[in-house]
Every structure is written in structure tokens, then in C-alpha cells.
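TICKET #2291
ISSUE: user wants both folds in one file
ATTACHMENT 1:
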Amino acid sequence: MTTRRWLSLHGALVLLFLYLPIAVIVVLSFNESKYGVAWHGFTLKWYRQLLAHTRIHPYVWNTLIVAAVSTFVSTILGTLLALGLSRFRFPGRNGLLFLLYIPVVIPDVVMGVSLLLFFAWVQHAVSALHLGLTTVILAHISFQIAYVTLVVKSRLAGLDPSLEEAAADLGAHGWARFWKVTFPLIAPGIAAAALLAFTLSLDDFVITFFTAGPGATTLPIYIFSSVKRGVTPEVHALSTLMILVTTLVLIAVQRVQTRR
């Protein structure tokens, strides 16, 4: 067998290993049987029961609120940081660039524990911050900023500076030059960074688990708690819906990144 065929077989086996468990969850969400993995027929009743299960609705809203607010804030702050790092040279710039990679590469459990200790210290010092939805949002912003900054900065690196120089020669001042020239050119990168941050927030479990408090349960935490009591078809259906939403967002990110 040629090298090309071996590589193709290897790639197919890797994809099968990665996506077969996800496919099993999706298939079982349409299974008539409530227990076990034996196929007893196609049904949509688990999705109907899931939509009628009003106890899950607060968890959905918590997840969407955390994802929307943290994405909005991190996109603004990350874009401004990327502009500053790309346009200016200042003492400590290289150190700041190095620090941006720490939230990306360190394990989530280390990030979660460090944020939990920080929030506990703040609560002890000022007695004004308690674990809840606010701390979850702040925790998500803390790691989303790094991803947004790196994505937007890569977009700025490919930007032709002569376009901004031409706008300046034509009399455009700083803000007009930014809104008329720079922002439209980096808008696809900003949109891709925002969608990526939204996906990361939507799927995050470890950091949310450490920083959440009463009334701040999100869908990943709810699924984890449900699995400990036994895997039911409702959990399969909920997981399938989350996979669908995440896949759609990732497709949108890919389309935005490939847009010229």
C-alpha cells in the first residue's frame, strides 16, 4: 500500500475516533428506547419532552446571557488590545504578547481554580462580590479576550498600511480613518473572533463549574449533573442541540474567516 493510501487510512481512522462518539449521541437522541443502546425505532418525543421541560429553560437563558455578555465585552476589549499591540511599540509589549497565550495553553482546571481563589480573595477583601452569574461572566471574559486579541491581531497583520496612509494623505483624521478604512477591513476578523468567543463560552464547563454559584447553572453544568444520575434520552437530545448550535457557529466562523 502506498504512502498516500496509508495516510488516507490514518486520517479516516482519526476522524472516526473523534466523531463516532458524537454520532452515537445524536443517533440515541432519536431512539425510542429510554434505557440502553439497542435501537427500538425512530422518535422525536425526547425533543418534545425537552422543550416542554420548563426546568431547563433557566439554564438555557443563563448560558445565552453569559455567552452574549462575555462575547460583547471581550470582543470590544480584545479588538482595542489588538489595535494597540499592532499599531504601537511600548515597553513591555513583548511580555504582554507572551501573557496573551497563557489563557490559551494552560489547562482549564488551573484557570478555574485560580479564578475561584481570586474571586474568594475579592469577596473577603471588599465583601461585594459573590459567586454567581457575574463571576461566571467575568471568568469567561478573562479567557475570551486572549482569543479575540489573537484573531484580530492576525487580521491586522495582513492589512496593507498603505491604505491607511492614503486615507491620511486625503485628509482623513484618526477616527474617520479608522471607521472608513481600518474597521471595514478588519470587520471579518472581528466577527470571526466574536463567533469563536461565543462558541467557547457556550461549551465551557470546567471554568464555569469553579466560578458559578447559586442560580448560575448553565447547560454544560446541568448536563454533567444529569449524567451523574444516569444518562437519559433527554440528555442525548440536549447534547445534540448543543452540538448543532456549536456546529452552526463554527461554520459561520469558517465562512467569515475565508471571506475576502
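ATTACHMENT 2:
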Amino acid sequence: MPESIKSVTLEAAALTHVGKVRTGNEDSFGVCLDAGVFAVCDGMGGAAAGEVASRLAVDTLLERLCAVTSREDRRKALEESIAAANRLVYAQASRDSLLQGMGTTLVAVAIQQGHALIGHVGDSRCYLFRASRLTRETNDHSLVDEQVRLGHMTQEDAERSPLRNVITRAIGTQDSVEADITELPIEAGDMLLLCSDGLTREVPEDRIAAMLRGPGSVDALCHQLIDAANAAGSHDNVTAILVRAA
């Protein structure tokens, strides 16, 4: 069911898949449609630690952020929610030897009054699809992406690099973390895609854009994205949330 968020009406679909190689799913997602809050986390760590980290981060963020009704308070709440998620994951890893070293990426969007706040840590991404163009709204906190931004590596070299899995920031691996927070206006017809790297490692951005240009509900389009990752091999868990404004 779509929910009105002042100047836009939102509909959303969310899917996750273990992929074709992994035996467990360390991705987690959360949707709070009536509050316009969405999150994807990609966990890491031994045994079930990654799953614990990602689920704890998503639950913490949604619990704190979905209750905030004032746009003026949303940015502070988003920053504090990410910081709280970091503290909880770090504390749990410190208490339990089986969870030591666990962490998670995080990308979250809070939409209110025709604006979207985007917060992220790590290499899970948020894209804006507007007027048939796909634009990445987050910069990966990863070794290779930072080298690309500095001009030391081409995007093609980054995609082939054996270091492409090395992230430079994560939730829960240190006692504090700096999240990137950005804001953009949302217009009718826009779509936002939140995803783990299990999608973007398998499906090029031009292919993602081509699928989003096609007809279909957000549910159908979300299924197409996951199916495309699986058809390409799905070497990792893959998660996508697709939000459309009307």
C-alpha cells in the first residue's frame, strides 16, 4: 500500500537472495513505508556474525528513525541512529568471542516533505533514477573507489582489482564511525535504489538503468534486478530496495 509523505506518495519493494555461492545470507534490510525510511546492510564476520551485525544495525536504525516526524530533526536522528547502531554492534562483538571482528555496511534513506536524506557507511549504495538516467548518490568507502576518486585508478581497473572487497569504513568494527549524510529533493516519477554490492558487482549500472526504464511495478522491477544478479552468477548475497515516488 502506498503511503503519503506530504508532497510525494511512495511505493516500495524489497528483496534479498542468498545468491548462487554463499550458504548463508548476511544481508539485512528494513522498510518503514509510512515513515519513508529504508535501509540495507551487508554484514561481515565469521560464522553467523555478519548476519547478526547487519540485522542489529537495521533494527536499531529503524527503531530510532521511524518515530521522528519533524524534517528538521531527521538529519540529527539519522546521524544518531547510525552512531547508535555502530556502538551496539561494536559492544556485542566485544562481549562475545564468537562475534569478534563482525561489522556491516549500511545505507539508509529517510524521505519526508519531498526530500530524501541519505546516510551510508561502507560500499552498499543508493542510486537515483530520474528521467531515465541512473545516478549514484553515494561514494563507496572502499580502497579501490577512493583510488578512483583520487585519479590513481580507472573504474575498469577497480572492477578487476583483487582489493575491491576491502572497505575503509564499516559499522561496528571501531568504537566510532563517520557516516556520510547527503540530501536531495524527490520529484514525482523518481525511483531510489538501495542495494548491497551483491547487485552492483554482478550487474553493470547501464543494465540496471535499462531495467528500470522498462514497464512494471516496483515489485516486478525489484525481482528483475535480483534475477539479473543470479543469472550473472551471484557470488555474494544480493539485496535491493526500490522506492518509487508519485
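RESOLUTION: both attachments delivered.
EXTRA DETAIL ON ATTACHMENT 2: DSSP finds seven helices and twelve strands in the chain.
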